[in-house]
Amino acid sequence: MFEFLTSIFGKNKPWHELPTPLALLKLVQFRDKMREKNLYDTSQLPTEGETPQPTPNPDGSHLQIRTPDGTFNDLNDPNMGKAGARFGRNVPLKYANRDEKNLLNPNPRVISRRLMTRDEFVPATTLNMLAAAWIQFQVHDWFSHGVPQLDNTIEFPLEEEDPWPQEYRPLQIGKSQLDETRPGGYKENPPTFQNVETHWWDASQVYGSNPETIDKLRSHVDGKMIIGEDGLLPIDAENGIDKVGNPENWWIGMSLMHTLFVKEHNTICDHLKQEYSDWKDDKLFNHARLINAALLAKIHTVEWTPAILGHPALQIAMRANWWGLLGKEMKRIWGRFGEGELLSGIIGSPTDHHAASYSLTEEFVSVYRMHPLMPDEFEFYSLKNGELLQKKDLFEASGNRTRGVVEQFDMADLFYSFGISHPGAITLHNYPRLLQLLKRDNGEVFDLAAVDILRDRERGVPRYNQFRELIGRERVKSFEEITDNPQWAKELREIYNNDINSVDLMVGMFAENPPKGFGFSDTAFRIFILMASRRLKSDRFFTKDYTAEVYTQLGLDWIDDNSLISILRRHYPGVSPALVGVENGFAPWRQVGVSGY
Questions:
Q1: Domain count, the chain
Q2: Which residue segment(s) compose the domain that 3 sits in?
Q3: DSSP calls for 277-319
Q4: Looking at 16, 62, 140, 353, which residue is catalytic?
């Protein structure tokens, strides 16, 4: 029926130009096809030795809590999605091959310099900087390939005119960590890699993906996590940054997000303790984590996504993912109408992995390469009078320098400054220059844009044109079909030697003309259609176990009733004047700065 309607009324029109009801039908159609054709399991590839089975908790608590390492989410396959499990694929495994001969062809450093370099900052004016901080905060929950192999490197050739500093030559990067479970590492195709984090949407960036990390972050009193009397997280003496579950690629945006949601965890503990006075520390902690993780997933689904994908069909579709087309109030009053997703949403529906065991995928990692969101400079303003207090560049506000910046300002001023500032648009020629000469605290110096391109090739992600075809989009036949910017088309043709099929996935996605209102390309969006639903539908804590028995009714109400704005107002009430009239916390805030406020 869906296909009939869209074929009759939407013939020869892209989905995003259709009337909203038909666009919604088209999105459902895309998702259903991709659930059938774009999920591939790598866990079935040869494994070295036997996979140890996790031990159930003697008290049975693993049945109702998120375990530290992600085990026992699927009770029939308790290793599914755990920390250390392999990334899956969204393309057939025969196409997920690493081409060693063309690993550096065309040269990723040349692509970075000529196609990525930011000549002038292009802002994403419908978003604020919290949207940029948020997505990295979420990515840290979802995936990490671990520390590169520092003793096994790839060197980027440098052109004679390349300005790469002499003191940092040669320009090189360690290869991705080997899959320890695979015979011969990833020397065989398709290459496979392990996720250091859990694959589940379980707030592991806040809590950690192993018992040792979680233990260090907990106060072990009333379920709470450690936070200082000054309202800031403790500092890790080893690296000089906040103690968190995932400290990778630290900058001021990460400090803001982690602090906010540790405070939220502790507030949830207070309310649970008040409601269930006999609960001990572990029970309070585990329930607060369940609630906090689901709150993060809900904010991402019904707030961040509609903010960055400003299309009417997406506004409806993302709320429908969570509550169904009948809406929040109908579901709250009457409960679910049947087991389907359409009317009552994915949340609380039966669990379903569809065509493959659940995992995040290498292609999912690729489409979330959104570094152009990052500015090269931050401006910090006063809530009291609107005064520009200071400017810091990205280097000064990142790594072990971050805490010094946070301590200079009031947290409400920092959140306000992010709320009124824009991130960068995700396009060509808008990559942060300071990330093209990225100096890390451990002494590494590299070009992150070049590394982004290399990683896709190294991990066997198909190049742009083949990728389009494999996810159900037509191949492009010319560079002008990718972009209507004639200069960009000319540059692409020159750098890729007039070979349309050699264009890298990230380059093609950045060059694309996105649908109206979209913050990223339609090609990236196709993976999003599939995986945004999958992260909910495969997780029993969002499906069959999203119940008052597991979460408590207080927990379900807390998730339903809160948003990024309510959380900000609770913990930093000073920002409230800037949020008057603001419906989405990731949209630009109201500039206040009224003298005498």
A1: 1
A2: 1-32
A3: TT--HHHHHHHHHHHHHHHHHHHIIIIIHHHHB--HHHHHHHH
A4: 140
